[in-house]
Specification:
The chain is built from twelve helices and no strands. The chain has one domain (about 5-245). The mean pLDDT is about 95. With about 250 residues, it is mainly α. The chain has helices at about 5-15, 30-35, 40-50, 55-60, 75-80, 90-100, 110-135, 145-150, 160-170, 195-205, 215-225, 235-245. The chain starts with a helix and ends in a 6-residue tail after the last helix. About 40% of the residues are buried. It is about 55% helix and about 0% strand. It holds the Pfam family DUF2400. InterPro entries: CHP02757 (IPR014127). This is TIGR02757 family protein.
Length: about 250
């Protein structure tokens, strides 16, 4: 498929899917819960648990009491938490405890991101947020918790969940929240590459790289800038849905 046909296809898909009823209980997405939290910390929790099937993710997120983020550590300690795939209830509790230390400071998470971004762009902004959460976890260590936050010193992960969180925060349309709109350019965002999107991007020759990693996410982003240099990640949700649906797109 040549560049002009691909642009026409993805522009059409992005436009058709940019509507509020694109996400629902029948067509679940973590944004369904994130938009109801009215909080960047709540949205971050939704993003960090966004692995596995969308239905399972939303079902789990609906069990969480996001108001706990503004309550005392004792309230969080006493609250019941469920389990989700690699995370046990204590992993979930420790995430709430770590993030609750940020809740007293308005726009704290955004400030932490911008502190890192100023030093080294969007990737350093993500790593600075990761470090901040790990530092506030009181030394808590478990494989489930480390998986949830990620390793700020690693360089291979595509950082899908963190890049998705930033897409939600920076972009504003019928789907994305735009709660940090304008703090960085939309053109700086990196594609939140999941396995569905990776497979589709390879099929569409958006990606040549064989490995599912950060370099592949950056390669896809650079290609999408050829289609829209100012807002390349506007195509993410359409690519994600197309990958989910496994539609035959032609050559």
């Amino acid at each position: 498929m040549d560049l002009n046909r691909l642009r026409a296809l993805l522009d059409r898909e992005a436009k058709e899917r940019n509507r509020c009823d694109e996400i629902s209980l029948a067509r679940p997405d973590p944004l369904l819960v994130a938009q109801k939290t009215k909080s960047d910390l709540g949205a971050l929790i939704c993003a960090l648990f966004s692995y596995g099937s969308a239905k399972q993710i939303v079902t789990f997120l609906e069990t969480l009491d996001f108001s706990l983020l503004a309550q005392t550590p004792q309230s969080i300690q006493n609250a019941p938490f469920g389990v989700y795939r690699f995370q046990n209830s204590e992993d979930v509790r420790q995430l709430f405890l770590a993030l609750s230390t940020l809740d007293d400071s308005p726009q704290a998470l955004r400030s932490i991101f911008l502190e890192g971004h100023k030093k080294g762009g969007i990737l350093e902004g993500i790593k600075t947020m990761q470090r901040a959460i790990l530092e506030r976890s009181g030394g808590y260590q478990s494989s489930g918790f480390r998986f949830l936050i990620g390793n700020p010193e690693a360089h291979q992960s595509p950082l899908k969940r963190w890049n998705m969180f930033l897409r939600w925060m920076i972009r504003k349309d019928c789907l994305d929240l735009g709660w940090w709109e304008g703090v960085i350019l939309k053109s700086e965002l990196i594609l939140p590459l999941d396995t569905h999107t990776f497979a589709l991007c390879k099929k569409l020759k958006i990606i040549q790289r064989q490995s599912y990693d950060l370099k592949a996410a950056i390669e896809a982003t650079e290609f999408l800038k050829k289609l829209d240099p100012h807002d390349p990640i506007k195509y993410d949700f359409a690519l994600y849905r197309l990958g989910q649906e496994r539609r035959e797109l032609g050559d």
